[in-house]
Specification:
Blueprint lengths: L1 E6 L9 H5 L5 E5 L7 H21 L26 H4 L45 H20 L16 H14 L4 H8 L2
Antiparallel strand pairs: 1-2
Amino acid sequence: TIYGWRHVPVDVSCLGEKANATRPEIEQILISDAKGLDEESFERELYVIRRRIEKAAQAAGVGALYIASLSCRSIIYKGMMLAEQVAVFYPDLMDERFRSAFAIYHQRYSTNTFPQWWLAQPFRMLAHNGEINTLKGNLNWMKSHEIRMASSAFGEMAEDIKPIVAQGSSDSAALDAVFEVLVRAGRKAPMAKTMLVP
């Protein structure tokens, strides 16, 4: 159930010209669990909802849509900016009512693809330096194995999450997408990381 929609306040004064010119509109949607699911099941359902939205947007020709997070556990704030600019750009992070057990910032831009807001770190589940030398082979392997990896957990919804790796993803974004589907399919994070090490 959607119970809120929010335009995220931003302060563009800290951005460079290119970052501001390519800055997307940033919105937050608040979704409640009307089914009373456990946290893992709710995360899996939110993942499938996000993938369905992304596929529908792509089919409708809305190429610039990127959902940074749709989670009951985390909120992702992304941007093409320096570490010291994050809290200036996102005033939420300076609000005393804003509480978090931890925050992760990774000042790294895509080097194998053109820098874009959606490719800025962190991703939905990982912050990673990239430079993955086996990327092409990994992507080819994923195309032929992506549904088998998740079919037992997603069942009839498995088609809704294909392709696992979005076209144009950086190596780090691709790694994050595969890690995410492994975790959403029920694997623990340490096991998913182990599976992804060549």
